[in-house]
Structure formats: structure tokens, C-alpha cells
Amino acid sequence: MVLKQKKNADLERDPLGRLLLKLALPAILAQLVNMLYNIVDRIYIGHIQGTGAIALTGIGLCLPVILIIMAFSSLVGIGGAPRAAIYMGKQEMENAKKTLGSCTLMLTGLAVLLTLLFLLTGRQMLFLFGASENTISYAWGYLRIYVCGTIFVMISLGLNSFITTQGFSLEGMGTILIGAALNIILDPIFIFGFHMGVSGAALATIISQAVSAVWVLRFLRGKKTKLRIERKYLQLKKEYVLPVLALGVSPFVMQSTESLINISFNTSLYKYGGDIAVSSITILSSVMQMIFLPLSGLTQGAQPIISYNYGAKNDERVKKTFRLLLFSCFGFATFEWAVIMAVPGTFVQIFNSNSRELYEMASWGMRFYIAGTFAMGAQMACQQTFLALGQAKISLFFACFRKLILMIPLIFLLPVVLENKLMAVFLAEAVSDFTAGVVTTITFLILFPRILQKER
Questions:
Q1: What are the pLDDT digits (tens) for 332-357?
Q2: Distance between CA 43 and CA 35 in Å, rounded?
Q3: CA 276/CA 287 separation, integer angstroms
Q4: Quick one: how far is CA 284 from the chain centroid?
Q5: Per-residue model confidence as pLDDT tens digits over 33-60
Q6: DSSP letters along 239-270, please?
Q7: Which DSSP string do the residues of 176-193 spell out, in sequence order?
Q8: Which end of the chain is more exposed for a tag (fewer CB within 10 A), N or C?
Q9: Distance CA 298, CA 112 (A)
Q10: What does 372-383 look like in DSSP terms, one character per residue?
């Protein structure tokens, strides 16, 4: 029996172009809404009259913690969803449901532990991340409220992967759409209407995340889903937990190292440019999210097609899906790179129009920061295909290669060898992106045929 959904997404037989569009377009829209979910607070806060720039710096200092929470969601959700899809491709529904049950328990337990950790140590962490006496009140005012919604983030992001991996891309998009729309509405009410500032932004966010979590749980307990959360499957068994963690460690490293990168940028830029430089990297990293948005949506759309057909041993369809994904991702990345390089100031103004100093520094730094981003289209297509094929170790290596081996050392080494220290810090991103893109693509093209030929 072929995996289908009511809207006729046949992962084994539908024409690939139409199928990828059907799955990827809602995923891209979901990523757009998810991006708004993540950066709308920064947009509103950056436009607070008088204190917007310094408040934006405070929010930027919270990003490492936010990224860590998202990383643990990816560890379980993105690690578990491909495993469930492969089981479904093999027609082993019992194992797929047990995988979902194990992931539900893991997400809940991790959420409780992370909430306690950040409430107890969050303020001290912020100083380590580059907070100053000028920014700590804004950073801690936001973070202490945000972490109380950790359980909602973990459930909505982690379990949503089990909706999209079944081909229910529209329903998966609904998870993000509902929460993001509510966040966009509540943010100005709490920030400006109730004069709550950064605390209001955090409160709006956790309310929105709670609504998203309820949506996910209702769907995965409903009649429409093939994978259903059932009490008898809520067990932590190593034969299901360990494969999930092994596959999820790559996206976990990708997300958690983003946290380390953010800390590295914050501390290095504060050293060479002060609080205004930290505000700049908050804007630049937000623009980078815009670049990654269609790439992430495309890889999410392709993942269930690749995973299912790999499990069904339909190698030709796997190859065709990858080729389509590669050309699409590279094309999008190159187009976005060209537009932002042409008018960087336009994107800076989305986040702040009150501080001329911030506008000039961020616009100047943008061209150095994104100079190598066009190569990331190929890198993401190859790395995420490794993940969809269940190649956890290879995917993990390339997650580490770009960020741990290249970027973090370059953030601190380039200012030593280049005269313009701020330019050197921004340039670390570009050098890492280009190098990782080239190396990952060459390696994938060598290993891909061997993976398909290997007995499964």
C-alpha cells in the first residue's frame, strides 16, 4: 500500500515536480510564518522609540538560549520523523507509532529540564553571552518569561515533524501559521498597548506557542493522522530512542552550534564595536534566516519523498528527487544573495529605522557577512539528503564542519590577520559558507551512489 493523504500526495507515484511543489510550497510558507514567529519580536522591539536599538541588542543576547531549545526539539523531532517515515515505507506501522510515542515522552522530559536550567542560571548565562549593564535588563526581562514556554516550543516544533513527514504539509503549516498570526497580533498589543516592552514581546510569544502546541496534539490524537499518539506507545525503549537520537544528533548539532556561533559573534563584536555591533549581528542573523527560509522549506518538502522511496528501495526516484532539490536550492540561494547584496540597507530598515549609527554599521557589514551564502543552497540540499537517507554520521560531520571547524575559529582568527577587525568578524560567515558548500557537494556526489547500492 502506498502512503497517501486525503489531498492525494502519493509519495511513490506522483510526478516529482508537482509533488515537490505540493509538499515544499506549504513548507516554505510554514518557514515564512515560522521566520515571522522568530523575528517579529525583533522587528517590533527595534522600532521602540528611543530605546529600540539597545533593546534589540538585549533580545539578540537571548538568541543562544532560544536556539538551544529549538535544537533539542530538532534532536527528537527531526531525528524521529525520518525514522517513522522509513518504517511506514516498509509497511511497519507498529514501529512507526512506537517511535512517535518515544519522541513524545522525550520532548516532554527535556522541556521540563531545560525550563528549570534556564530559570536558575539564565541571568548569569546572559553576561557570558556578551551582556553589559546597559543591556542586561532588556535581555533578562525577555528571557525569564520566554523560557516558561519551553514545553510549548518543544511540543509544537518537535511533534510537527510527524505531521509533515506523513505528507500532511498543509496541516503542518497550520501549526506555525496559527501561532505566528497570533504572535503578530499580540506583540503590538503587549509591547505598545500595555507598555510592557520586551516582557510583553515574550508573553505574546509563549501564548502563541501554547496555541500551536494544542493544534499539534489535537491533530496527532485525531482520526485523520496515520501516526497517532496513543497511551500504549508512550514508552522509552532503547531500540526506538537510540536510532532517533543517532539521526537527530546532526540537526541538534546544527542548531546548538548556531547558539555557539551567536555567542562567538556577540563577544567578538562587542570587543571591537560595542553594543551597536551586537545589535548589527542581531539584524544580520535575522536576514540570514530570510535567506535560509525557502531552502529549509524545500528540504522539508523533499525529505518525506526521499525517505519513503529509500525505504521502498525505489532508487531512481530518490536520485531524481535529489537532483530537483539541488537545482531548486542553489537557484533560490543565488537569487536571494544577489538581491541582498544589491540593496542591504533595505533589509536593515525592516528591523530598525531610528538609529542612523546602527543602520550604517549593519548595511556595511551585510555585504561581507552574506558574501558566500549562494553556496549554501547546494550545501543544504546535500546535507539534508544525507539526513533523509538515514546517514546520521555523515550529516553530523558536515554540520560540525561548517560551524565548529570553520566558522567559530574564523570569528576569532580573522581579526588577528586582517587590519579591519569588524570586517574580519563579519567575513567569517562568508568564508565558512562558501567552503562548506563546495566540500559538502563534492563529498555527496562521491558517496551518494554508494549509499544507494549498499544493501539495506
A1: 999 999 999 999 999 999 887 778 89
A2: 11
A3: 17
A4: 16
A5: 666 766 888 888 887 877 877 888 888 8
A6: HHHHHHHHHHHHHHHHHHHHHHHHHHHHHHHH
A7: HHHHHHHHHHHHHIIIII
A8: N
A9: 32
A10: TGGGHHHHHHHH
Contacts with 51 (C-beta within 8 Å, 6 or more apart), sequence order: 138, 197
Neighbours of 193 (CB within 10 A): 11
Angle (nearest 5°) at CA 113 between 107 and 115: 100
**Please, what sign has the CA dihedral across residues 79, 125, 155, 261?**
negative
Q: Which residue has the cell 511506514?
A: 88
Please compute the mean of the pLDDT values over residues 228-239 and round it to a whole number: 91
Cell numbers representing residue 356 in the block: 542612523
User: Alpha carbon 141 to chain centroid distance?
Assistant: 24
Task: Round to whole Å and give the CA distance between 197 and 139.
Answer: 11
Instruction: Give the three cell numbers for residue 429.
Output: 560567515
Cα(164)–Cα(169) distance, integer angstroms: 5
> How many CB atoms neighbour CB 419 within 10 A?
7
d(CA 209, CA 152): 5
Q: Which residue has the cell 560531520?
A: 397
For 263, the grid coordinates are 555567542
Residue 224 C-alpha from the chain's centroid: 27
Q: Within 312-375, where are the H helices?
A: 315-342, 344-351, 356-369
Distance of CA 228 to the CA centre of its chain: 25
The answer to whether residues 78 and 248 touch, using CB atoms and an 8 Å cutoff, is: yes
Residue type, 39: I
Give Cβ neighbours of residue 353 (< 8 Å, ≥ 6 apart): 47, 359
Burial 150-161 (b: 16+ CB within 10 A, else e): bbbbbbbbbbbb
What is the predicted pLDDT for the residue at 3?
43
Residues 212, 276: Cα–Cα separation, whole Å: 34
**What is the SS3 assignment for 418?**
coil
Task: Kindly report the pTM of this predicted structure.
Answer: 0.76
How far apart, in whole angstroms, are the C-alpha atoms of residue 68 and residue 65?
Answer: 5
d(CA 165, CA 140): 36
| Spatial CB neighbours of 171, under 8 Å, sequence gap ≥ 6 | 163, 219, 224
Displacement of CA 96 from its chain's centroid (Å): 24
Inter-helix orientation angle 344-351/238-311, to 10°: 140
**What radius of gyration do the chain's Cα atoms show?**
21
pLDDT tens profile 178-188: 888 899 899 99
